[in-house]
Amino acid sequence: MGKNTKRPRNDDSSSTSSSKLQPSKKPHSSSVSSSRQTKDINTHHRSSQHSEQKSKLSTFPSYLEVPGLPPKVKLSCEIIATTPSVTVERILEDRGISVSQEDVEGVLKLSYGFPGPAVKFFRWADYQLRDEHSPYAWNLVIDILGKDGQFDAMWDAIKSMRKEELLSLSNFSSVFGSYVIANRVLEAIMTFEVMDQYGFPRDIVAFNSLLSPICREGKTQEAKEFVDTVKGRIRFDADTYAILFEGRENEKNVVGARDTFSEMVVDVGWDPGNLPAYDSYLTTLLKAIEDCSRKNDAKNAGLIWEVMLKKDDFLPDTEMYNLMIGLNCIVKEFDVAGKLLNEMIYHGVFPNSETYNLYFYYLLKSRKLKEASSIFSEMMKNEFVPNHSNCSSAVRNFVDGGDPYTAIKVWKCMIENYNFDLEETGNLLVLSLRGMNRLPEALKYAEDMIECRIKLTPPTLSKLKQSLVQKGKLAVYDELLRKWKA
């Protein structure tokens, strides 16, 4: 190994900490009562929590998944992954490996799945680097120990870093995350409370770094309870609320998200530039409205909608309007649906084809023919074509409702925009016009169908013949039949 200092062979290899990390039972708090409380918490469900942490370690990347690693980094990772902790240092020495600070960082990043051997590697490299590990390498060790539930050794590493004046806020962020993953939120909070003993203020940056893993791990309610206890001590910022928003959204807690938003507006105001919080809030509202839609709960959906619209910077999009319009149509609140449609443009949102077709469909289904006729005219004016199904339904409903004029308008729209499945609707229109004693119009649209190669069925021809014979116009029928046969 050249001039590199070798680790003494008779050194205790059973410890998983660095040569600077002395075994210690002292808690990170100077309070004796906190020490006892911490020990009690540490022993509670230790086995199950450690098992859960082991499963978390498996989600970290392995050296086998990273192509193009430097040979000595790959070899070191392989030794760590295949060698018992007690012999790692001896194997590394025997292989004559020489490492730099960057090599150590690279190896540790890919060795989370083997925490014991990884820390032994760190200890071995300490001699080579003459006690000059990088701050990042120290942080990786702290994170590996914490994620493996080796909290005593983790705090030994922190104390060593403090002696070397290498400690940073990122180290505490790692500790927060490790405790939260281990379901030891209280200890994460206790760590925050004693940060000042390590030279770090309990400011909003540190607070947010604690809040983030608590919310990320699905413990937003615990985070909110802690937020309430420190509200008088720490001035929250937009990031604080963005973190809470994300937690509420992930947990699908719409009421909580709404309350968080209201608190934010009062506390720090609303900055439209805070896009993460904005997107999270809109996502939560959208899911809430979708849930109300599935339950046909227009009342609660309306309450959520009103909360959103009261905020000047919260502008719903077309998709959200479509959900609200559809929901109110389902429960037959057509006045509300119509109001929503009309107010869209005042919020800078415009209806699309889905908006109109949705509203048109439910109006037809409920036989609101006057309103349906008006919406059809608006659709044509705005160049939105009813879908094929709506066209067929509209022709049937309008002729059944005694409105042949609108039925004919829809039919003309239909044959201009669709070239399939027109036979049934066309024959229905012709027969309906005949039944309304509008024989000339029935004949005209029958001839149009033949000209457009839309099949006029024999029963329709037969009915037209009966009416024409009664009117003494057999020659007109013969001409129609000739065209039909051509």
Automatic annotation (TrEMBL):
Mapped PPR repeat ranges: 134-168, 317-351, 352-386
Annotated segments matching region Disordered: 1-58
Keywords in alphabetical order: Repeat
A GO BP entry: RNA splicing
Basic and acidic residues: bias regions: 37-55
Presence of the UniProt keyword Repeat in the record: yes
Protein's name according to its UniProt entry: OLC1v1010640C1
The species this protein was found in: Oldenlandia corymbosa var. corymbosa
Keyword hit for Transmembrane: no
InterPro entries on file: BIR6-like (IPR044578), PPR_rpt (IPR002885), TPR-like_helical_dom_sf (IPR011990)
Residue spans of biased composition, Low complexity class: 13-22
Superkingdom of source: Eukaryota
